[in-house]
Design goal:
The strands form five sheets. Strands 3, 4, 5, 7 and 10 form a five-stranded antiparallel sheet that branches. The protein has a five-stranded mixed sheet with strand order 6-12-11-8-9, with no helix packed on it. The protein contains no helices and 20 strands. It is an all-beta fold.
Length: about 260
């Protein structure tokens, strides 16, 4: 701001020179408020380093530095982290509170177990979203970065077959569960393909199915006539373009006459 002083402004006092009747001085007025800013980029990584994609159920770490650039200490500053979808809908994934002295830099960290559906998201952190801290400028209170959420890493539990051997022409109930290998939660909607193999070669046609809401499945595989010997039942589960396969040996033997 500028302070201006004028002498004899109304000219009521006769003077020989009126040109030097004005003086001015600029003053810097500091607002007595905090000012929370981010001093770096929002970083996302896992145990191996920075990432721009993560599987459902995987743990990722978000971190960023913030600073109180104002003139007073800020107490219990709230920082909220969100995952924002392509429709602009944000889901809170974590929050932290920080004490921030004047000029103090603080590191913000959260661990996020990825709990969104597959797709592209923006991860964002917002400082002081509740407005509890009076700031000089709240126009720079957000930082963000993009991430892709991918299909979960899966594992297949293939239930043990109830019989040691089966006759040709009979059916085998192939059951089990497809789970997220990170969380052990069942994976619903995984596409299943089940077939018989002998010496690495597919025997007959595949049968297909889908996992239930809890990740379990039960699919009937028919053993055609003429089969004899040891075979392998192969179960393949696919979701989001990612495929996991397991198998189990089965003995096919004609009934004695």
């Amino acid at each position: 701001q500028t302070v201006i002083v004028v002498v004899n402004p109304d000219g009521s006092i006769p003077e020989t020179d009126y040109e030097n009747n004005e003086g001015e001085q600029r003053l810097i007025v500091k607002e007595n408020r905090a000012d929370i800013i981010f001093t770096g980029e929002l970083n996302v990584g896992n145990d191996l380093g920075p990432v721009d994609s993560a599987a459902i159920g995987e743990n990722v770490y978000l971190s960023i530095y913030a600073k109180n650039n104002g003139t007073v200490t800020a107490y219990d500053v709230l920082f909220v982290f969100y995952a924002v979808d392509d429709m602009g809908l944000g889901t809170e994934i974590g929050r932290v509170y920080k004490y921030m002295a004047i000029g103090q830099d603080v590191e913000l960290n959260i661990t996020w177990t990825v709990n969104m559906t597959m797709g592209d998201y923006t991860l964002a952190v917002i400082s002081n979203p509740d407005g509890a801290v009076e700031e000089i400028d709240d126009a720079d209170n957000i930082a963000s970065i993009g991430i892709t959420v991918e299909a979960p890493n899966t594992k297949i539990t293939f239930d043990r077959l109830p019989e040691p051997s089966y006759e040709p022409g009979k059916a085998v109930l192939v059951s089990g569960k497809v789970s997220n290998s990170n969380t052990n939660a069942g994976v619903s909607g995984a596409s299943l393909e089940i077939w018989l193999e002998k010496d690495g070669q597919k025997v007959g046609e595949s049968v297909n199915g889908t996992t239930r809401a809890d990740g379990t499945f039960g699919v009937t595989l028919h053993l055609r006539q003429g089969l004899d010997g040891q075979y392998r039942i192969v179960v393949s589960a696919t979701i989001g373009g990612e495929t996991e396969t397991t198998s189990q040996l089965v003995q096919v033997k004609a009934a004695p006459e």
